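sorry for the late reply, my laptop died twice this morning and i had to redo everyting from scratch. anyway the thing you sent over, i finally got around to it. pasting the sequence first so we're on the same page, its 94 residues, then the predicted structure underneath. double check i copied it right bc i was rushing
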Amino acid sequence: MNTIWIIAAVMLAAAAAIVMFRILAGPSTLDRLVALDTLVAVAMCGIGTWAAYSLDTTVTYGLTALALIGFLGSVSVARFRVPDIRRPESRYPR
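ok and here's the structure:
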């Protein structure tokens, strides 16, 4: 049974490493935002895996808080994001 937990931990660590590369190498802010959301999801999976392994349900409160903060952070960044590339000025000003 420990083999399954080790495989799960290795897969989560590999996913986190790949996502960190995407965060550092992302060409635009939206790519980095999606990678950050994915990193939060990987962290949530790690917490859930730890809760299943240790049979400790007290960490689920942290899981809920992380889900809420991740969602609110993503929505706020997407809402107030500044475009990466300036658009050419239109001929007709507003």
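Residues 8 and 89 are 51 Å apart (CA to CA).
thats about all i looked at so far, will dig more tmrw
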